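FW: tagging you since you asked about this chain on Friday. Here's the raw sequence from the shared folder, copied in full. Didn't touch anything.
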Amino acid sequence: MIQAIAFYIFAAIVVLSGALTITSRNPVHSVLWLILAFFNAAGLMLLVGAEFIAMLLVIVYVGAVAVLFLFVVMMLDIDFAELRAGFVRYAFIGLAFAIGLAVEILIAVGAWSAGTLNLSARIAPMPDDMPNIQAIGMLLYSRYLYVFEGAGLVLLVAMIGAIVLTHRARGGVKPQNIGRQVARRPQDATRNTRPPVGQGVDL
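HL: got it, structure written out here
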């Protein structure tokens, strides 16, 4: 009974905050409503026993993605009148994409339901006493190890590419010479003086 009440509370807040994320005129308010939706979606994942996905929603989406959106929106000088004009201009294109996405979801659900295997055969067999995180770890580091390492390699290449693209030569900047810094002696960098009382140090 308590789980059913918690489910309806979390689900109602997720739907309401998702709708407010889309309809809010202020982008900062939209990001805050999005963060609320992520938190309540994490609560729904806890109810079904998927604590790993709940942790990802809180740590990755709320702690990184949504906060990044919030800081980017707050730092940018956004012209809200221009945004509304663009919304009206591309409303039909967005509606067409939304209808296409809804059709794809319906086709995917229909294809899943029309499969020859039953639902119990599609689920990976795991012991009932094994936690969800341990089960995911066993599959991730055994059966899907190479896929997991490939995904990490792709992210590493993307990170290196972003660093290379942003690390361009700038004029008027004094570069750092690490060799000269390491070879510098303490007596060349400091000077001991004994100034009289009431007088400063001569530079």
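FW: The longest helix spans residues 51-75.
HL: agreed, and The CA atoms of residues 94 and 100 lie 10 Å apart.
FW: great, closing this out.
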